[in-house]
Design goal:
Blueprint: H1 35-43, E1 62-69, H2 73-76, E2 89-95, H3 106-119, E3 126-129, H4 135-146, E4 152-156, H5 163-171, E5 189-193, E6 196-200, H6 216-219, E7 231-236, E8 239-243, E9 247-253, E10 255-262, E11 268-272, H7 276-282, E12 294-300, E13 305-310, E14 314-319, E15 322-328, E16 334-338
Parallel strand pairs: 1-2, 1-4, 2-3, 4-6
Antiparallel strand pairs: 5-6, 7-10, 8-9, 8-11, 9-15, 10-14, 12-15, 13-14, 13-16
InterPro entries: GTP-bd, Mito_lipid_metab_GTPase, P-loop_NTPase
Protein name: GTP-binding protein
GO molecular function: GTP binding
Amino acid sequence: MPSNTTKCIGCGVVLQTEDPTKLGYIPNHDHIFCKSCYQLMHYGKAEGHSHPDNLPNFEKKSLIVVVTSLLYLDSMLNSEVKRLGDNYKVVYLINQIDLLPDATSKNFLLGKIQKSFRLNRVSYEDIVLMSALNPYDIDHLKGYLKSFNVPNIYLIGLQNSGKTTIFKALTGNKEALSLPKAALTQTMLHAKFDNLNIYDTPGLYQGGYLHEFFEYKDYKDLLPQKQFNPRNGTLKSGQSLMIGGLVNISVLKGETKSTLYVSDYVKHHITSSDNVENILKTENIFKLKFDNYVTKDYKLVEDKKYQFTLADFGIVHILGPVTIQISTHPKLHITLAESFFK
């Protein structure tokens, strides 16, 4: 049956039959999913998606809902999004809290986020902790959004933060794709929730995430999708924690306790710092490796827990005081902050 739409119902890109190498290609007008979405759905193969350069234009009477994964808090603090609250009502939805162990204090997490937002001058109306996969959280969100009494609600945020999953849950949309792949939504998607206009916008770009280094079929399992099983350890001077072949943390001075939060598919290995290079070159412990590594030293002087966010695939807590060295690809996105949770 011929398509009645000019846009892919999976990602929103404009459909075209002229050039197979460009976005939106379909072999004929019987197709309602572009080639890229079709291959992603059926073969797990991702190609051809891109990132928007700028924020969309918002209607004046709107609520801006910033959806950010628990793993992306570090990036949001340095994003242009944090100034939106100067001109619009802005609510932050901190998604994927279901990744945290059940014993995690949500009040502690919220307090840390509020403190960090104040220090970084982030303007907002409210902060909501939630999981887009929790029906109770979605039901609560529906009532909460209606309480703002505005006609338009925009879901914005970084790539792969859960915007489309929330969009589908609010509106009943069944076609939009919400797989764990960065930059899937290509143009703004629109649907109704009661009398509200809900807009799902393309994910904002963050450099240094795994999609810049590896193919989707290789890295997709490394992105956390279920509750973390924390991996605790003790590292002494001269020892290294190797994380998935992607990040190596070596203790230069002192001793520390570490806690690693990653997908079950991410292997870790503790070894002598002198042995790291040999393992990366000669052994097949890890699924993925980089061709190039650089090192950076960190002197963690205070007696507190520090948090290193590892691109889009994990978090590691390091207890100070200690001096460590991190070895990874020069462009991998890694940030340091005081821990957001304990």
